[in-house]
Specification:
mainly alpha; 70% helix; disordered C terminus; MetI-like fold
Length: 303
């Protein structure tokens, strides 16, 4: 009887675990599957009520329109949309180029600043060091919307609105505090005796940082790079507040402005555009996910 009861309890536990995992998997996959389904139907089908759970139409135009710039409105009129900043390509491709410029610059700048600052916090002891570290981390406690007004006023006075530089600096400030703490945590794991030996041999701090520290903290640098790129690539608020020019729109704001209006939403075309930008990011993330995961874990354990 005892053995049988244990087997029943084990079966119930396994069944409960399966149900919970299945429910979680459905919750995660359903939006992606719905996005995929929507991207292959006509725009007018997305507005029917009640909705069609299974597609009633099929078209590849939703993918061709963003890539080649040929856009068909709801009344059947065909328009050719080119990028205002890059006239030789479509509006969507122009958004991707702008996003790569901003996100790539933010990523490089964040890596350099995070390495220098994180290493400094890890190796040098100075007055107010702990308070400054806590202050850096506390900047992440404030919601971005709370600093929008002073940030806008400052940018207006500095004449940095509607510029690549303004967007890059704002987004770098957004991702830098967490990046600094991550790099510091990795630097804390390195034995200082190795650096002291290099100092005795006459190596400078910069040489030690470049030749000894940076190769060891490569997983942390990869984590910072992915964190910075993904956050700046997907960020919408700063682009809405600090930019009003179509020439500087990045992907999230560009898709919203191009395929959404007060009268009609091109949900199908927008879904295709979203998939076009999700797939390359996913392909980049998959081979580097082990570095990203190890970076977050090592930083958390050390902190």
């Amino acid at each position: 009887m005892v053995l049988k009861k244990l087997q029943i309890d084990k079966s119930i536990t396994e069944a409960s675990r399966t149900i919970v995992l299945t429910a979680g998997l459905i919750a995660v996959l359903f939006p992606l599957l719905w996005l995929l389904k929507t991207s292959f139907i006509e725009n007018k089908e997305t507005l029917v009520n009640p909705i069609y759970w299974m597609p009633r139409s099929f078209t590849l135009d939703n993918y061709l329109h963003p890539l080649i710039g040929r856009f068909e409105s709801i009344d059947g009129q065909v328009n050719i949309n080119t990028s205002p900043a890059w006239p030789s390509v479509s509006f969507f491709v122009g958004l991707v180029i702008n996003g790569l410029i901003v996100s790539g610059s933010v990523t490089l700048l964040s890596i350099v600043l995070a390495i220098l600052t994180g290493y400094g916090f890890s190796r040098f002891r100075f007055f107010g060091r702990k308070s400054l570290m806590v202050l850096v981390l506390n900047t992440q406690m404030f919601p971005y919307i709370a600093i929008v007004v002073p940030l806008y006023v400052m940018y207006r006075n500095l004449k940095m609105l509607n510029t690549y530089t303004g967007l890059i600096i704002a987004m770098t400030g957004m991702v830098l505090p967490f990046s600094i703490w991550m790099i510091k945590s990795f630097c804390d794991t390195i034995d200082e005796d190795l650096e002291e030996s290099a100092l005795i041999e006459g190596a400078s701090r910069i040489r030690i940082l470049c030749n000894i520290v940076v190769p060891v903290i490569t997983p942390g640098i990869a984590s910072v790079a992915m964190f910075s790129f993904l956050n700046s690539w997907n960020h919408l608020l700063y682009v809405m507040i600090l930019n009003t020019r179509e020439e500087l729109l990045t992907v999230p704001m560009g898709l919203l402005r191009e395929y959404a209006s007060s009268y009609f939403y091109y949900y199908a075309t927008m879904s295709a555009g979203l998939l076009l930008i999700i797939i390359p990011i996913a392909l980049i993330y998959i081979p580097f996910q082990k570095y990203f995961a190890s970076g977050l874990t090592a930083g958390a354990l050390k902190g």
